[in-house]
Amino acid sequence: MPGMSEKAPAAGASDAAAASDLTEGEVRKVDKDNKKLTIKHGPLKNLDMPGMTMVFGVKDDAMLDKLETGAKVRFQAEKIDGKIVVTKIESAR
């Protein structure tokens, strides 16, 4: 949705910078067997990628234990060894 990523400035500059690196999304599938997440997400600016629904690997398998289908999240993805991997994810409350 337009304007959803517009947030009031955080108290500390480092908090604001960290929050701006995260992309909002919604978990569509948690695949623990294959260590993958399907996320419908907004644009990934650091990867120059438009918003879409796609499958990501995860940097840490423990991330999968904290997520469920339909969860609203903020996350960071990076290209590692040619694959796009979620490196940080948190609940978007």
TrEMBL record:
InterPro entries: CusF_Ec (IPR021647), CusF_sf (IPR042230). Residues 25-34 have a biased composition (Basic and acidic residues). It comes from Acidovorax cavernicola. Pfam families: CusF_Ec. The lineage of its organism: Bacteria, Pseudomonadati, Pseudomonadota, Betaproteobacteria, Burkholderiales. Residues 8-21 have a biased composition (Low complexity). Residues 1-34 are annotated as: Disordered. This is RND transporter.
